[in-house]
Structures are given as structure tokens and as C-alpha cells.
């Protein structure tokens, strides 16, 4: 019965003009699996992933995403080198996936603000490789810069390998890249980096 209810929750999609909208409950443990993190519930519909060594994520089960829009709100910390928060997508397994993530401690740092938002494709193209081989192509600043200790809204669009990230309802993308992965679809998860905790709420997925 529990499996049937879970399936119904995942299939209960609201039809909209250009696709299907899914707003999975972040606090419903039956919809998610954890990798290298523990989760606690936040106020409202939010969750907190704890800090731990290595990257970690909470992945939506029984759902595959190809193209469309992913929106959520996220909160990190103004802790130098210890706050990496964002989205994992095109997840094939625990090691192969793409990310769009943020470094809140760089948001208002004049010397490092161009390293505020980052794209990666793991394991082949982590941030170190991309920064060395393609400086400035796969990371960027946020303008205007959000509060590094506050909530901010993220909208990521994915269409035929073209990926754009919009922050706090800006009309111009903060970062636009072409996917480095050859995979056309995969799972979606909220993601935190090495030594980082993150707070997430109001996830919405619109598939095309």
C-alpha cells in the first residue's frame, strides 16, 4: 500500500500549458534517498542537509527529468570555503551527475565574486578542471548579489543541453552553459558540497 501511495504522489502531476508540474514534498522521506547526508525538517515545507565531509545530496526517486525548468529556494552560509549549495541533475548514479551550485561566501566578496555560481559535470569535469581549462566559462558572479546568509530563489532551465541559471527572478541568466554530459536524462536532487550544510524549500519541477 505504501508503495502504491508513493507512486500516486509522484504521478499526480498538474497539467499546464507547456508541460507538467511536480512539486514533490521535501519532507516526505518515502520520495527521496540520501547520499552522504542526514536530513532534518525545517519550518514550513523545507529541509536541512547537514554538513559532512565530501559532497552529498537528496535525490528524488522514481522520477526522470529530461528538459524543462527546476525552481527552488536555498540558503547557505557566509563561511569561507564551507558553503556550497545547489542542484544535482542528470544523475546517473552516486558519482556521475551535473550540478549548478552556489558559493554564498563569495557573493559579496569583491575579490572572489566571479566564483559565486558554478556548473560541473562529475566525475570528468569538477570545478578545478573547469576553472583551469576554461577560466570564467563555467562560473560567474551574481548581480545583484544576494545576502550570503539569506534565502534566495533559483530557476534553472534545461533544453537540448543548453542550461541557464536565474537568481531572484532576474530576466538575464547568471550563468549559461552547454552541458558537458552525453546523457539526455537522469534524476534530480538537492546538493551540498564538501563540509557544507544547506537549507532548501519550495521545489518545483516543470517538465517539457
From TrEMBL:
Q: Name one Pfam family in it.
A: 3keto-disac_hyd
| Residues annotated as signal peptide | 1-23
Q: Which UniProt keywords apply?
A: Signal
The record's InterPro entries line, in alphabetical order, gives: AL/BT2_dom (IPR010496)
User: What region holds the 3-keto-alpha-glucoside-1,2-lyase/3-keto-2-hydroxy-glucal hydratase domain?
Assistant: 42-206
Q: What is this protein called?
A: 3-keto-alpha-glucoside-1,2-lyase/3-keto-2-hydroxy-glucal hydratase domain-containing protein
The lineage is: Bacteria, Pseudomonadati, Bacteroidota, Cytophagia, Cytophagales
